[in-house]
Amino acid sequence: MAMNKKQKNIAEKLDRDALLSVDEAIKTAKEFASSKFDETIEIAMNLGVDPRHADQMVRGMVSLPSGTGKDMRVAVFAKGDKAEEAKKAGADVVGAEDLMESMQGGDLNYDRVIATPDMMGVVGRLGKVLGPKGLMPNPKLGTVTPDVTKAVGDAKGGQVEFRVEKAGIVHSGIGKASFSEKDLRANFDAFVNAIVKAKPSGAKGKYVKKVAISSTMGPGLKINTAEIEGA
């Protein structure tokens, strides 16, 4: 990636191996975000877990208080009154067998898929389609629920899902470069606290090993984990 003059000036002063405070890292990530589009500010956490073991899996949902800055596309499997509730809550698409057929045909442009419990017989047929994309509704994540109004509202209002990958890394967007430093810090704290609370029983030794944030097009900025409680 070719850097512009502003980014070059920042890069020349930046020690890539330095451990920054959270506030310094957020400020620098925003400065690096000089693209023509509103870059996402992303967090990556290297955890002391091996997700191949069931007792070391880290997965869940967290609501970012400042929102994500992203327009979440939400599909809901529901019928009757629940379908109407989902539509009123702002779901982008609501359906049943028709929605299943659409997804089987390749229409998977969604960020969240929600289902009422009675629809799981239909949704279950989409396991091989939704599973690899991390879109399969799951009662533990609140995406299989009779309360579709809340589930859609949470998805649209800044709730993000996290799931640790094979290498022990969990990552997510925590807002946009246009957000204030205060709003990004609030989202950072909410996300990190959720990860710390989700520490699995099988985790041994240091849990939060490394934390870095970056803008979409910017470098990773290492954060001093001493700032993170429970790490």
Description:
The chain is of the alpha/beta class and 231 residues long. It has eight helices and nine strands. Strands 7-1-8-9 form a four-stranded antiparallel β-sheet, covered by helices on one side. Strand 8 (208-215) and strand 9 form a beta hairpin. The longest helix has 17 residues, at 181-197.
List strands and helices in order, with pairings.
Elements: H1 5-13, H2 22-32, E1 40-47, E2 59-63, E3 74-77, H3 80-89, E4 93-95, H4 97-104, E5 112-115, H5 120-123, H6 127-130, H7 148-156, E6 159-163, E7 169-176, H8 181-197, E8 208-215, E9 221-223
- Rg (CA only): 19 Å
Shape: globular
Strand content: 15-25%
- The count of helical stretches stands at 8
- Biggest sheet descriptor: 4 strands, antiparallel
Give the overall average pLDDT: 91
Spatial order of the strands in the main sheet? 7-1-8-9
What are the low-pLDDT stretches, counting only 5+ consecutive residues below 50?
A: none
Descriptive terms for the model:
about 230 residues; alpha/beta; 9 strands; globular
Provide a brief overview of the structure.
Helix content is 31%, strand content 21%. The protein is built from eight helices and nine strands.
